[in-house]
């Protein structure tokens, strides 16, 4: 019996996926539930498990975009499992190079440095050798535009490498790019900045981080302080915890905080649900769980769906200051940055303190300047006075020690 394996729907509104990697080869014997491929959707990378055991025949290549429900491979269930683990191979076939063009179109190949007639004329007028130009046309063919842009060499070649490479962006990366451009074009995005003296948090972490980790199995990091400071500020300024829905403003009485983390496939934004109900231990445990799942490529669409506000930390990469881009359809995002010892004035004296610059990007269509600035000031106040504003003046109770 030949089973047709079709692409399952990875989530609502997703109509196609991209074959990122085949984990098996054509003709291999696969076991039921064995991961046979990794597929990229516009939200996450997911594994595709074999539905039955048998010999597999691949019907799509890596990099192909296939619609949900399309057949990507065949599995012959009548094939017997090979002894000793050696899988029977399918008949040898000639591999044809994959061309980024519609399959029905005829693709021509050209010799390196070949130029179109119009390009040859321009190059001849300029006295430029076609072999010195990298063409941007199909298969490296030199177009008239390439020839027009070419400039005769006015210096001595250095002998250094001048190679280029071209690779296809993953579906996830392309979708992120589309969403970022969409945000810039469809929102009235504005950014306000402030600075935070991190000394109080440094002192708390220095005193309690070892005890906290020994009891709870997770570190006492900065994310719990920032998350709880954001939750407090969102309650004070509910417009920041809202989003546009047509001609209406949709506000939430809960705080689902999206946290931007770096994964093997790029930026992932999993969500901490109902962060307003979590303690320091709860936030740190959830951050660790989601970060590990993102690192291992196990994040699901559901874990990245929703979110009412986002926190992103460019400081882990050394960023001093940035203007983070809103995560649609949300209306606000807080950017954390690196912590640097800076001279500041305290009670008329210049002192050195660990300072972090923070940035809030917001949609000015529904969040006014007063609310945005007030929100960021509230975050700053909570971070600079965490014992009173985040711990209710009882550190050990707040940290569950």
Features:
OB fold (Dihydrolipoamide Acetyltransferase, E2P), Chloramphenicol Acetyltransferase, Dihydrolipoamide Transferase, 401 residues, four-stranded antiparallel sheet, 19 strands, seven-stranded mixed sheet, alpha+beta
Describe the structure.
A hairpin with a 2-residue loop joins strand 13 (261-263) and strand 14 (266-268). The protein is built from ten helices and 19 strands. The protein is an alpha+beta fold. It folds into three domains: 2-81, RNA polymerase II/Efflux pump adaptor protein, barrel-sandwich hybrid domain (OB fold (Dihydrolipoamide Acetyltransferase, E2P)); 117-149, Dihydrolipoamide Transferase; 189-398, Chloramphenicol acetyltransferase-like domain (Chloramphenicol Acetyltransferase, 2-Layer Sandwich).
- Relative helix content: 25-40%
Average pLDDT: 84
CATH class of the largest domain: Alpha Beta
Poorly predicted tracts of residues: 86-110
**Terminal-residue CA separation:** 61 Å
What structural category characterises the helix and strand content? alpha+beta
In the CATH classification, which architecture of the largest domain applies? Answer: 2-Layer Sandwich
Shape: globular
Seen as an oligomer or otherwise, the chain set is single chain
**Name given to the CATH homologous superfamily of the largest domain:** Chloramphenicol acetyltransferase-like domain
Give the H and E element order: EEEEEEEEHHHEHHEEEEEEHHEEEEHHH
Largest sheet: 7 strands, mixed
Number of strands: 19
Radius of gyration, Cα only, in angstroms?
28 Å
* Strand percentage: 15-25%
The number of distinct structural domains comes to 3
Number of helices: 10
The CATH topology of the largest domain comes to Chloramphenicol Acetyltransferase
